[in-house]
Amino acid sequence: MILDKSWWKYLLAVWMTVVILGAFLYAPPAKGLGETARIIFFHVPTAWLATLAFLISAVGSIQYLRTQEKKYDIWAYSAAQIGLIFAILATVTGSIWAKKIWQSYWNWDPRETSIFILLLIYAAYFALRSAIDIEEQKAKLAAVYSIIAFVTVPFFIFIIPRVYESLHPDPLINPEGEIKMDSRMLQVFINSLLSFTLLFFWMLRLKIETMKIHFKIEQSLSE
Amino acid sequence: MVKRSLSFIHKAYIVFLKDLHVEFRSRYAVNAIFLFAITTLTAISFSIGPIRLRSEILAPLLWIILFFSSMSGLAHIFVREEEQQTADTLRLLTSPNSIFLGKWLFNIILLFSLEVLIIPVFLAMMGVQVDSPGTFLLIIFIGSIGLASVATLIAAIISQASAKGALFAVLSFPISLPVLISGIHGTQLAMDGGTFKEAISDIQILFSFSIVIVTLSLLLFEFIWRK
User: Fold this and answer.
1) Which residues of A touch B174 (CB under 8 A)?
2) Which residues of B touch A (CB under 8 A)?
3) Where is pLDDT greater, at B72 or A5?
4) What secondary structure, in 3-state letters, does chain A show?
5) Which class is A2-222 in CATH?
6) pLDDT band at A104 (very low <50, low <70, confident <90, very high)
């Protein structure tokens, strides 16, 4: 498998360096938002990965309930852990940007509310896991909770910001379905999105492998 | 001996009646939820004093009382089964979904009976003028169904974990936020005399959310319940 080789990791390092340089040097400042718009190259990928991790965690949970195989629980748990990191990053970068544009770090814009709820859900998920001792029980109930939480997310992400007005700019997912972005910005943006996603899968793989080893050691200790 | 084939709904009804009987024997959940609501309401009313609040503050206060009162009493329905070790017998007796529906119905009735008492007292104590009572009642009605549905499902999960009381609110809060946000928004509109048409988007969210949660519960409850 291609991911077992190590050359792509060096490639990713070069790629991300180019993306970071491009974000500051190559892409022009956006209309209206000025230089602060450069945060889009880092903020949007982290927010996207927080959502993707949540999706992977939910799919892992569904698979776990279907098959009762331990590896799917490891998938779900690892994705949630990596997802939490990206959710925090998205919150922090968004908050810094909000301070610059809206003059306050936090003002409960619907987008801020959504990401905060995502953080709460992750926190509740880990709290639930830590409160159950039996492994199978833990995996099963955490999977159920993860699915419940996942199903309520569309209410936050799609319905609430549309019912209540948001100031958050959304150039990619807008009601008209058009991409309103400068072509050079778009190039950097797409590259950033892809390289961050690759980084995410690398992190996820590492996490899953270490979790598997962890469980193997625990099993051999209990035997 | 008369043999009757009990339908799914009928079994749920029997579970509901059983829980009603057990509840009237101990009155644990009723005491918890009513006293909690009254304590909170009194605390709020005392600390505010004679000041007349605007609907932007009254509506959230009402929903905070309802949410935390639910958190104090609605978990008992499943926690009791585990604590008194009656859960296994119940598992043998009937299907998971009729158990869930019976307990769901019980929690809804419990929350409704709380509201019948607490909302008039709230309106009287805080001196609230509700300009469109029909919309107000509808929002409270659908919102409570949503809240009770989330609470029943989460109660089933936490009844099998340790530190139940703390976990219940922590797990329920993010899930029931759509109910709280739309409920507060709609209640505020109704207090200010908003028409049914103005509150329709909130009612739609509350309604669809309840449907989604109940459907999800019926799909997932078996996994929570079976050991």
Assistant:
1) 117, 120-121, 124, 149, 152
2) 153-154, 157-158, 160-163, 167, 170-171, 173-175, 177-178, 181-182, 185, 201-202, 205, 209, 212-213, 216, 220, 223-224
3) B72
4) CHHHCCHHHHHHHHHHHHHHHHHHHHCCCECCCEHHHHHHHHHHHHHHHHHHHHHHHHHHHHHHHHHCCHHHHHHHHHHHHHHHHHHHHHHHHHHHHHHHHHCCCCCCCHHHHHHHHHHHHHHHHHHHHHCCCCHHHHHHHHHHHHHHHHHHHHHHHHHHHHHCCCCCCCCCCCCCCCCCCCHHHHHHHHHHHHHHHHHHHHHHHHHHHHHHHHHHHHHHHHC
5) mainly alpha
6) confident
